[in-house]
Every structure is written in structure tokens, then in C-alpha cells.
UniProtKB/TrEMBL annotation:
It catalyses: D-glucose 6-phosphate + NADP(+) = 6-phospho-D-glucono-1,5-lactone + NADPH + H(+). NCBIfam families: zwf. It comes from Haloechinothrix salitolerans. InterPro entries: G6P_DH, G6P_DH_AS, G6P_DH_C, G6P_DH_NAD-bd, NAD(P)-bd_dom_sf. Gene3D superfamilies: Dihydrodipicolinate Reductase, domain 2, NAD(P)-binding Rossmann-like Domain. Keywords: Carbohydrate metabolism, Glucose metabolism, NADP, Oxidoreductase. Signal peptide: none annotated. It is an enzyme of class 1 (oxidoreductase). NADP(+) binds at R46, D89, I90, K145. This is Glucose-6-phosphate 1-dehydrogenase. HAMAP family: G6PD (MF_00966). Catalyzes the oxidation of glucose 6-phosphate to 6-phosphogluconolactone.
């Protein structure tokens, strides 16, 4: 697990992402002994800090974002000593002399340029890195989402970054792919012979993919209001999950084999356009309500009353137009300020063909469901129908076979960024999005945004702390199905 010596340069080094996710993940890798002694982390921002000032800042924050049982003074001191800060106004004209000097001290180290800054700066940063001659064969660039806000802007960013870095050096992060339970989707499907013969329209009735959050938009309201749930969650995380569920078996676990198969799924998504969009999608926006018993403001109140049609909730019905999945709907839903935090994939199998049990009609035999709980309480549950013990007639009950990660594995589940940052240093982009995937995902998403805009309708209001707009329930119930809800 040891990683080669590297310089990790974080643009946006005092930002939310660096502090909440990147530095804690690097600390944890360091604590596990994976960072080389020569590895340095160079934060770039406009903050006007020297190394000591930056170390103090991070020392004050780190423990808030690292699990309590991983706090340890020796590891923290070693980690803080790796940190450096360089003040740069990315949009300014100054040559990056200090960065050039710092990086020239370690010419053989792997160079990772992590762009945790606004996407409009991705192109300019790459251009500047190139002018400063900081990019070599051993360099990689990491792009945080969102990669653009539509297909054209995504292409423009990809062009600008591609003018400086080869595709194999570009790592577009979708942190969902680094989650242990998401990686496990590949293992569940392709290391068990049991499921694959059933993994198609012959045995599967429908699939649900849910990412439900209790948090609101918080300090990110400014960004979020230009984005909304479809761009923020569906275009990337939910479609990536759909790809992992729907793709054909790759011939091996490598960068191109896996990503080629995911791309085929994105290309097979039946386009949702025009009037179909209003039938197959629901968008919502949270109003004031109670979350975990606490009163919370509505989305518009958080914008100080500014009018906004930005959706904080989306539910939609997608279809993958190929032989395996013909006629099997994929229901996707995500939202903020909902009643529970849960991300899961639910695969519902077909009902039994015929009931042999006296007095029990076919429709009272609950179909099998495979529930893959991605977070929290990571688990895989296969809901089976069993006989309730008792001397009388046959009574049936659906009960889950339950594989709980916490009960099965003693080790801590690493955060997605711990895994993904390691892959960047190693130069393995399998769990990152390739240019064509990002663009195919935008191609499918864009007409939905356009149809919403043209319809002149507003997102449906839902009270914070509920399961979203009632129209989302109607969306699936219209097809005679129900959303999976369990704690
Ligand atoms: C991010 C979105 O990509 O994912 C956020 O921008 C969202 O709005 C977050 O809250 C959810 O990630 P996780 O790992 O908490 O499910």
C-alpha cells in the first residue's frame, strides 16, 4: 500500500473540500504508514499564510474531520510537517515562482495537481502550470466535480485541460466510486456466480437508486443555487451507480475495460426529452420543516428570499435501451433535507408466477428484493419469503438475509478519498470518469434541464424532514410499484 514519493499540490488548499475531505484522507493514509517520508502537501490559496500559519490552521481543524479513534499526536505532528502553503491568486498575472522553486526541490517525485477550486479556473490553472513548465510525464491532474454545467461547458473544460495533460494523466473524481460499498457492487456482481444469470429483465422487475440526505445546502448555497440536484447528484453519482448496476461484465478490472462498459450504459440510456420529461421526472424544493426534531429553514429562506427554481430533490424514471434491460425501469431519486440519510440500490425481482399456498393470492407473496445499502449502516440484504413458524396453516413473511459490514468486518471502512488519492498517486484511473463518460452523462441530462426550463413550471414544495414531494410517490405508484423505505 505504500505510495511513491509525491508532491500533492492542492489548488483551493484552504477551501471546504481540502479541509473536510482531502487533508483528513491524506492524514489517515499517512497514519497507516502509506506516505513516503519525502511526500509533501503544498496548499495553494489566496490566504496569505506561510507554512507555519497553514499548519496551525489545519492543526485546529483536522480532528473535527477524522474519526475519534484515529486521533494520535505523533501521526498528527508528522503529517503537519508535510504541509506547506503558497499564496497565489490563480486568476492573477504573477508567475508562479515560489511554486516552481518548491517543486524543483523534488524533481523525481510524482506530481499531483489537485484542482479543488471553481471549475472556471480549471483551464487557466492548467495553462499556467504548462507555462511554468511544471507538467512532466510523472504529473497528474485531479478535477473535482462539477465538470461544467452542461455539455458545452464540460467539453470546453475537457479541451482546456486536455491541451496540457494527456487523458491518462487526468483524474475526474466522482467520490461515490471510491466508497467501499460502491466498489463492492463490482465484487457482488462479478465474484458471485449466483446473481449474474438473474441479472436481467427475465428476473428483475425494476431497480431503485436512492441518495437521500438530511443536510441542507448549508454554506454551499451560492454554488448549489447555480446547480441543483440533477447536476449536483444525478449527472454524476447516481448515473455512475446506475452504470455499475447495469453494465455488462468487463473482461478484467482495468481502466479501459470497466470504463468502456460504463460508457455503453450511458449511451444506451433512452433519451428523456420534451413532454416525456414532465411525465418521467419530479423536481422538488424544500420548504421549512422539522429534521430530526429540529426546525429548519426552507431553501428560499436560506437564499434570503431570492426567488429560485433550483431543485433540491429529483425523482425520475430512466430506461436502459438494450437487450439485458429492455422494459426494466430504473427509478432514481435524491434530495436534501429529507427525513433520513440513506444511499442504496434496490433490485426488485419478479413476483412468483403462481401461488401454491391455499388462501394466499400471488400478489400477497412479496417479491424478492436485494437491498444494497451504500451508507450509512453499510449492508447487503436479500429479502426472502419464509414460513412463519407455527402449527397452523402456512403464514408467509418476508425477512432479510443480512450482511452487515460493521458486524462482518472489524476494520474501519476507509473514506472514499483515501482510496481515490492513492489511486491518483499510483496512476490508476479505473475509478475515475473518463472524458467520454462525463460528456455522455451530460448529453442525457441536458434535455431534462431544458424541458424543465421551457415548461415554465416550478419545483414542487416539500416540507423538510419528509420523504419529498408526493408527486415522487405518485411517479412510482403509477407503475404499481413503491419506493423502498426502511431504516
Ligand atoms: C457531493 C455533492 O458531490 O456529494 C453534495 O456536491 C452532496 O451536495 C455530497 O451532499 C454527498 O456525498 P456523500 O458522500 O455524503 O453521500
Amino acid at each position: 500500500n505504500s505510495l511513491a514519493p509525491c508532491d500533492i499540490v492542492v489548488f483551493g488548499g484552504t477551501g471546504d473540500l481540502a479541509i473536510r475531505k482531502l487533508l483528513p484522507a491524506l492524514y489517515l493514509r499517512d497514519r497507516d504508514g502509506h506516505l513516503d517520508d519525502a511526500t509533501r502537501i503544498v496548499a495553494v490559496s489566496r490566504a496569505g499564510l506561510d507554512d507555519a500559519g497553514y499548519r496551525d490552521k489545519i492543526a485546529a481543524e483536522l480532528r473535527g474531520f477524522v474519526p475519534e479513534d484515529c486521533h494520535d499526536t505523533t501521526s498528527e505532528e508528522r503529517f503537519l510537517a508535510r504541509l506547506h502553503h503558497i499564496t497565489i491568486d490563480i486568476a492573477g498575472q504573477d508567475p508562479w515562482l515560489e511554486l516552481i522553486t518548491r517543486l524543483s526541490e523534488a524533481p523525481d517525485s510524482v506530481r499531483v495537481f489537485y484542482l479543488a477550486c471553481a471549475p472556471r479556473l480549471f483551464g487557466p490553472v492548467c495553462q499556467k502550470l504548462s507555462e511554468a513548465r511544471l507538467v512532466n510525464e510523472q504529473s497528474r491532474v485531479v478535477l473535482e466535480k462539477p465538470i461544467g454545467h452542461d455539455l458545452a461547458s464540460a467539453r470546453a473544460i475537457n479541451d482546456d485541460v486536455g491541451a496540457v495533460f494527456a487523458e491518462k494523466q487526468i483524474f475526474r473524481i466522482d467520490h461515490y466510486l471510491g466508497k467501499e460499498t460502491v466498489q463492492n457492487l463490482l465484487v457482488l456482481r462479478f465474484a458471485n456466480a449466483l446473481l449474474e444469470p438473474l441479472w436481467n429483465s427475465g428476473a428483475i422487475d425494476h431497480v431503485q437508486i436512492t441518495a437521500s440526505e438530511t443536510v441542507g445546502t448549508g454554506s454551499r448555497a451560492g454554488y448549489y443555487d447555480t446547480s441543483g440536484a440533477l447536476r449536483d447528484m444525478v449527472q454524476n453519482h447516481l448515473l455512475q451507480l446506475l452504470c455499475l448496476v447495469a453494465m455488462e461484465p468487463p473482461t478484467r478490472l482495468d481502466r479501459d475495460a470497466v470504463r468502456d462498459e460504463k460508457l455503453k450504459v450511458l449511451q444506451a440510456l433512452r433519451p428523456l426529452e420534451g413532454p416525456d420529461v414532465l411525465r418521467a421526472t419530479v423536481r422538488g424544493q424544500y420548504a421549512p420543516g422539522l429534521v430530526d426534531g429540529e426546525p429548519v429553514a426552507g431553501y428560499l429562506d436560506e437564499l434570503d428570499g431570492k426567488p429560485s427554481n433550483t431543485e433540491t430533490f429529483v425523482a425520475l424514471k430512466a430506461e436502459v435501451g438494450n437487450w439485458r434491460w429492455a422494459g426494466v425501469p430504473f427509478y432514481l431519486r435524491t434530495g436534501k433535507r429529507l427525513e433520513r440519510r440513506a444511499s442504496e440500490v434496490v433490485v426488485q425481482f419478479n413476483p412468483v408466477a403462481h401461488s401454491i399456498f391455499p388462501g394466499i393470492a400471488d400478489e400477497f407473496i412479496a417479491p424478492n428484493r436485494l437491498v444494497i445499502r451504500l451508507q450509512p449502516d453499510e449492508a447487503i440484504r436479500l429479502h426472502l419469503v419464509t414460513k412463519e413458524p407455527g402449527p397452523g396453516g402456512v403464514r408467509l413473511r418476508q425477512v432479510p438475509l443480512n450482511l452487515s459490514f460493521a458486524e462482518t468486518f472489524e476494520s474501519r471502512l476507509p473514506d472514499a478519498y483515501e482510496r481515490l488519492l492513492g489511486d491518483v498517486v499510483r496512476g490508476d484511473p479505473t475509478l475515475f470518469m473518463r472524458r467520454d463518460e462525463v460528456e455522455a452523462a451530460w448529453q442525457w441530462t441536458e434535455p431534462i434541464l431544458a424541458a424543465w426550463e421551457q415548461s415554465g413550471t416550478r419545483p414542487k414544495r416539500y416540507a423538510a424532514g419528509t420523504s419529498g414531494p408526493t408527486a415522487a410517490t405518485a411517479l412510482i405508484e403509477r407503475d404499481g410499484r413503491t419506493w423502498h423505505e426502511e431504516d
